[in-house]
Amino acid sequence: MNRLDLTRTRWTNFLIRNRWPQFLIRAITLAGFIFTILAGLFGSVVGSHNFAIIFVWIAWWTALKLFFIPFGGRSWCSICPIPMPGEWIQNGGILQPRGKNFGLGKRWPKFLRGRWLQAGGFLMVGLFGAVTLTSPSVTSIVLLFILVLALVLSLVFERRSFCNYLCPIGGFTGLYAQAAPIEVRVKNPEVCSAHAQKSCYEACPWGVYPLAMKSSANCGLCMECVRVCPSNNLAVNLRPWGSDLGPETKHTLDEAFLGLVMVSSALIDSAIFLGPWGQLKLAAYAVGSRAWFLFAGLFLLIALAIIPGIYTFAVWISKKLGNQDVSLKKSLAHQSQVLVPLGLMAWIAFTISFALAKFSYVLPVISDPLGWGWNLLGAVAKPWVGQSTSFSLLLQIIVLAIGLFWSSRVAFKITRSRKQALPMIAFSVFTTIGMLWLLIG
Amino acid sequence: MQEPLITYDNLKHQSPINNWRLIVFFLLGALLILFLPIPLVTPTPTDRVIHIDATSFQFTPGVIRVNPGDRVTIELVSKDVVHGLSIDGYDFQLTSDPGQPATGTFVAAKTGMFRFRCSVACGNLHPFMIGKLQVGPNWLLIRGVLLGILAVVAAGLSLRKSAKTKSGNIL
Question: What is the pTM of this model?
Fold first, then answer.
């Protein structure tokens, strides 16, 4: 077995089973979240001098893509503050496991299930990104809206319905968690089959039954199942990267759609934020103007028609080369696994240019979080302008090449023959060259 | 003749790559692609004067191309608020007040693509007010494409296929 079970080591087992360490981290993130909202609403209107912009879009967004997801999958979800207030009310306490307490506890409507709404949410982030990423008050209003929405939904619907079906970041982390080196899995399936109470499923705020779990996409790593299992039959494994991607895992069309939205967004965001096209930036920023509607139309055309169209064409050719009686819909879902490493590495490459050059802003805003002229840590100085160094350009090339290697490997793994993998590899090459041109060209 | 088919069990046994010679070969190939010096035949350096207009939040022109060794004089004119211009990788910076040209000269000694940015906070999109300076051919982009080709070949060779046929969930 190429797995390392963290529950077998005493101190990691303590950290996993005890609710206090996780609660303390979540309490800090909740306090930080509320402070961020206040900073955005009442602090400086200049984004580079406001804690809300620098911490959300430079520090957190970078940490999510460079650290949390590649090394911990949905580990951010396990400490995310957004569902906390609603969950406390649902559970009737702060450190309680899930129970039947306050709230209507309705099931999420069947027709709204899947990743569709999360993908839609991510498209919204892209459409309004130039404003959200640069305006502290807009960032705060969005965060406040999300907090209230998650709270209201947890009063109406059961478990973490907001996280499961609406949160765009949940969609982002869930999709790429399939590539991450951590998983919660059952140790011995027979023990679970014989256990009638299913206490793990009852306790899971995500509505996941560990025995049936084949992918980490829907597991928020909250560790509640590990804590309540009476037979100590759940493992938290370190595993090889990309373990959920292979010929035997099940994938759905909504995952394919989400994966395509993510890849398209990485390409479009690279063009807007890192490209030399001022008119494009202005159009993306001028929400409501004619230029913005043109931008929105182009954005949606690329994300909903051009990239999915090329992908569908590649899958169709691959299906033809396979000479098999499998529906196109099934093939679109199955081959979407290629999009996971491809998109993840494209986002990492984008982040290297986008955020690392701006990291010099982090210390000054800690020293003066509201931009009111404080200097709490003595770190307020004129921030370095920020540059892409030759090292960061080289790093981007290496990251994109790893993404292409990884997605090509997945394409070879999930198809029956080499020639059947070629169209998907061609799609990966097309995307990678697009990213290379936007970032390096 | 039936196409040799892949089996999941077989793949699992071969992943991760267990052929160290192959790994070393591809790593050396990657290093060569990334760092092999390329002799450049460059045109005789000349003096160039480039006029750049800066408005919120764009430089016009957004892309400038020069040859290695050129002596480049940039005349920056801000059209609305105070803007600056600094070039990544070069020790070069200008600041222009509205309507007041600022001029500076540098020698384009480094080849490749370099972003230039506004260096004076000028509004919400200031961090993304970016242009590109292209000095000579963009070898880094070419190296990136070659590394991508190597990555695809490496992926193909890292999974050797079995000739066995097995039904499964492979579509």
Answer: 0.92
